[in-house]
Amino acid sequence: MSETKALAASEMYFLSPFLPPGARNPATGAEAPRPVVDSAKDEKLPFVTLTYAQSLDGMIAFAPGQRTTISGPETKSMTHFLRYQHDAILVGVGTAVADDPALNCRYPGATINDQPRPVVVDPNLRFQLARSQMAKLRHEDKGKGPWLITRPKSLDSPLDSNCQIIRWTDPMPKYTDNAVSNDPIFWRSILEALKHKGINSVMIEGGASVIKDLLRLPELVDSIIITMAPTFIGQGGVSIAPRRPPKAEQNVASLNPVAYHKFGKDMVIAGRPYFPLPPSMPLTLNPKKTLDETQEK
Predict the structure, then answer these.
(1) What CATH number matches the domain at 42-242+252-274, 2.60.120.1440, 1.10.10.10, 3.40.430.10, 3.40.50.720?
(2) Fewest CB atoms less than 10 Å from the CB: which of 37, 81, 91, 105?
(3) pTM of the prediction?
(4) Number of H helices, E strands in the chain
C-alpha cells in the first residue's frame, strides 16, 4: 500500500472551490478558501461530492465485481484529503462486497475525530458488516462505526418511509425478499436520512450503478471530481455512462464551473453539475435487484 502524502498548496487550492462548507487545511486547521456559490438545493440534503477514477474510455473496472486500480498514488492522497473534508463516505453494496473497503481517512495528521462515517447502501442486507474492515477499524478505535442503509421492514419506520439506517451496534434484522420486495429506496430519501442523522456532507465513491444514478440526478449533487488515468481498459470493462432520457437532445448534465489539475500522471477534473434539463424524478432501486453497482448495464 502506497504512503498517503500531504497535498501541495497548489493542489489544495485547486480543490477548494469544490469542497463542502467549513472545509479545513489539515496542516493548519484553517478554513479552506472557497467562493460563495448560489445554490437552490434543498436544505434537507447534505453537501454531496461524487468522485471516482476512470480510464480514458470511460471505464472504472476491468469487469463487474473485479477490483481494479486505475489511478496513481498522487490521486490516492487526494482521495484521503477529500475524505478528511466530509462527514461520511458512501458506497453501494456491490463495492462493499467486492472490495471490503476500509472507507477511512489516512491523510497525514488525521485523528479519530477526523474520520468520516462509512455508509453502505445495502437494500437487502447482503454485506457481512461484522466481518468487515470497517467494523475491525471501529473495534481498534481507528474509525467510526459503519452504517447500513436498507429498506425498512415496514412503512412505520420513524426516520423515513423509504429507507432505514442501521448502526453497526444495532441488532441485524433478518429480512427476506418478500418482506422488502414492495419497498423501494429513493436517492433523495437516502440523502435526507443522512442529513437527519447529522451528516452535513457526504462523499460518494461508487460503484458503477451508484455513479450512473447520480449522474442522472445532478440536482442532488454539489461537486463532481473525476480522476482520468492515461490508460484504456477496452471493451468488456465497466462503464459509468448514464442513460439519457428517451428522445433527449441535450446532455444529461455538464460541469460549470469546471477546473483541471494534473496529479502525477493523472488528470483530475472538478466541477459543479449544471443540468439544462428539468430536474428528473428520483430513481428507485429495482426491488428484485440489489444495488450491485459493479453490474454493467
Answers:
(1) 3.40.430.10
(2) 37
(3) 0.83
(4) 7, 11
